[in-house]
Specification:
By secondary structure, the protein is an alpha/beta fold. The chain is built from 11 helices and 11 strands. The relative contact order is 0.14.
Length: 284
């Protein structure tokens, strides 16, 4: 374990925070949660690295909740808000980790020449069947003769074991001054702090929900900024906001949902909310 480099700073100086190798089932990726002592980034050492890829194969695409989450009206409404924050609505846009292509579709409606990439072949086929320009290939392998004006990553960077490679690929195919938009959970949020406190007193379900799923990188508003800076991006603006219960994701009990909503509201005055959206520009 001690020889594993941190995905952000490559340091091998880190400590074990949670052992979640026992958390299995569904689309989960079991493993150990490590904290880098040099840069503070939390990341997962999967018990089986192949499980990262396996978590997004046929079963994932066939899960009714996957389609509901990606195509719901609350998702579309949120994506429209993201697009409105980019600026001039024109040019070439690439959505990385596009799934069923919902962001591509909404970007096209807003006036962009939009396309997407995703590694889940069944989802890509469904997106293509809807007439969308979506390819099944790693973003790291893209080489665009015509650079993009905008690249978006909605709920994807936390699933990637080498996020700096992904960010470097985005910068390579972006125009100088082009915009990168990243949406991901904020692990300095009040709800995450509460989960850690509960774990200390022997209540582990909240930590298992947050860290035991299919995420392998656990960014916060500081480590995400650091990663973007390392990859050659300058932050333009960052927005923090609470978990949105109107977006149907994995099933959440009414009691858990009420608790999460209450904690999120308590964290709001201190900017400790669970979701973050960063707009950054590619530097020369």
């Amino acid at each position: 374990m001690n020889n594993i480099p941190c995905p952000l700073c490559q340091s091998a100086d880190h400590r074990l925070v949670f052992d979640l190798r026992h958390v299995t089932g569904g689309h989960r990726v079991p493993g150990q949660i490590l904290c880098c002592q040099s840069c503070g980034f939390w990341f997962k050492q999967p018990s089986n690295r192949d499980r990262i890829r396996e978590a997004y194969e046929d079963d994932y695409a066939a899960d009714p909740m996957t389609e509901t989450y990606m195509l719901s009206e609350p998702t579309r409404t949120f994506f429209r808000k993201v697009i409105a924050g980019i600026g001039p609505r024109h040019g070439r846009l690439l959505d990385i980790g596009t799934g069923l292509g919902t962001f591509v579709e909404e970007a096209q409606k807003a006036g962009y020449d939009a396309q997407g990439v995703d590694l889940c072949a069944p989802l890509v086929k469904k997106a293509q069947a809807r007439g969308l320009n979506v390819q099944c290939k790693p973003a790291e392998e893209l080489h665009s003769a015509e650079p993009f004006d905008v690249i978006t990553m909605m709920d994807i960077i936390e699933h990637v074991p080498e996020p700096l490679k992904l960010l470097a690929a985005a910068r390579r195919i972006l125009k100088p001054g082009g915009e990168l938009v990243v949406y991901t959970p904020n692990h300095r949020a009040a709800v995450v702090l509460l989960a850690k406190l509960l774990r200390r007193v022997g209540v582990g379900f909240a930590v298992e929900e947050i860290f035991g799923g299919n995420h392998v990188g656990f960014f916060d508003d500081q480590t995400l900024l650091s990663a973007m800076n390392k990859a050659g991006f300058a932050l333009r603006k960052m927005q923090l906001f609470p978990y949105d219960p109107s977006r149907p994701g994995q099933p959440v009990s009414p009691v858990s949902l009420a608790a999460v909503t209450a904690v999120e509201q308590l964290g709001k005055p201190f900017h400790r909310m669970f979701r973050m959206l960063a707009y950054a520009q590619s530097q020369p």
